[in-house]
Design brief:
Number of strands: 10
Largest sheet: 3 strands, antiparallel
Radius of gyration: 19 Å
Helix content: 25-40%
Shape: flat
Distance between the termini: 53 Å
Structural class: alpha+beta
Number of helices: 8
Strand content: 15-25%
């Protein structure tokens, strides 16, 4: 049963992320170890397998677990059943420049800007290839108690192939019609079809720092 579960988990992860080269990077056993962290992988019970299967129905959990070695991904402290606990952060919404909220101190804002640039660079080269963040808003990023900027809602973070699949829409007249939230591809104006050529990049995060 264990070997069959290994294969099912590996196939599910590859299909969910459209990342079919995953087995060229790591073994099925290693994939399971990453998904099961921070718990030690000794002998999984049937209840453990059932719990993990429920958890990996969420793309966010899969990406969080596979990317735990990245600085700008929040730590997963543990899980039970279909629930999992994440590192506590303050969202950047709490520092919004509105009359009703306290603005972020200038020094902290500068450090956050530098960290955002580092995040953008880190996302460009991961074990899943380049990642594209398509929902750039203050509520989707946070600052840890160590003043580390993290992407706290990564449902809208996608590997390149998955992103291209989303952006390749049927018809278009302009590039603006080839969008998926904050990500955009080029419109082939001759064929009136969105292409797989991604125009945006993760430097879009500057709009959070500069407020535009």
């Amino acid at each position: 049963m264990y070997k069959l579960f290994l294969t099912h988990v590996s196939d599910h992860v590859k299909n969910e992320l459209s990342f079919y080269e995953l087995n060229n990077i790591m073994t099925e056993q290693r994939i399971l170890e990453l998904l099961w962290q921070p718990h030690s992988l000794e002998k999984l019970s049937y209840a453990d397998m059932s719990s993990l299967w429920l958890l990996i129905q969420r793309d966010e959990f899969i990406k969080l677990q596979l990317l735990q070695d990245m600085k700008h991904i929040p730590r997963v402290y543990g899980f039970c059943g279909k629930f999992y606990a994440l590192e506590r952060v303050k969202t950047l919404e709490e520092f919004s420049l509105t009359p009703f909220k306290k603005p972020m101190p200038w020094k902290k804002r500068l450090n956050a800007a530098l960290d955002f640039l580092e995040l953008s660079q880190e996302f460009s080269k991961t074990m899943l290839g380049k990642l594209h963040h398509c929902d750039i808003q203050p509520g989707n990023f946070g600052i840890t108690k160590e003043a580390r900027v993290v992407a706290i809602d990564i449902d809208s973070v996608f590997p390149t192939k998955q992103m291209r699949d989303f952006l390749e829409q049927p018809t278009c007249e302009t590039n603006k019609q080839c969008d998926f939230f904050d990500c955009m591809s080029a419109c082939n104006v001759t064929e009136h079809q969105c292409s797989r050529n991604i125009l945006t990049n993760n430097l879009q995060v500057r709009q959070i720092i500069y407020g535009k």
